[in-house]
Amino acid sequence: MIEFDGIGHAYGERVVLHDVDLRLAERRVAFVGANGSGKSTLARMVNGLVRPSSGRVLVDGIDPARHGRKVRERVGFLFTNPDSQIVMPTAGEDVAFSLRGSGLSAQERARRAAAVLAEHNLDGYADHPAHHLSGGQKQLLALCSILVLEPDVLVCDEPTTLLDHRNTKHFVEVLAGLSQQVVLVTHDLDLLDGFDRVVVLDEGRVVADDLPEPALRFYRKLVG
Description:
- This protein is α/β, with parallel strands linked by helices.
- The chain contains seven helices and nine strands; from the N terminus they run βββαβαβαααβαβββα.
- It has helices at residues 39-44, 68-72, 91-97, 106-119, 135-147, 165-176, 212-223; strands at 2-11, 14-24, 28-32, 54-59, 75-78, 153-157, 181-185, 197-202, 205-210.
- A six-stranded mixed β-sheet has the order 5-6-7-3-8-9.
- Strand 6, helix 6 (165-176) and strand 7 (181-185) form a beta-alpha-beta unit.
- The longest helix has 14 residues, at 106-119.
- The two termini are 33 Å apart.
- The mean pLDDT is 90.
């Protein structure tokens, strides 16, 4: 359960969220809204990347603003640009790097890295230079580096913005098969087939919160 209780936030004098109250228990939840609506700021509060100016966020009862490290053990965050998350020279090393604090041996970390790469169609790429992968492969690599930690929640902030249609389709299929709770921030409304809930934000406020069809119908009228 992810809870937003009276969330407000400002960057200097610019207020981006106003008194947001949400309880997210569904397996697939999306935030949609125009640029500047506050959706990415709200999503980044789930694992403590952004602290609210007012109100409180809880992830299974734990406050990310106070216990960020504990929450980040349970919540993975995928950014728009995978290059911002890839830190090691090869794909295998990058995934294994996520396990550096696990207490596992180097051999076991490498084994687990290879296993998760294979599970997501990157088998054979463990020794491949990470930054020489295609855009779609890089985003899958960034995802693997999160999933190897077996989080309970995956927050994705515009994960398909830099992908072509084929890689977007594949990435959406991967997300659909995950066991984790997924919170997706997106402008691409075609990604939301099969989602349980869509939250529409406008100028920092929740203006619709419903099943995908009625929520997106409202959003299209809002921006149309």
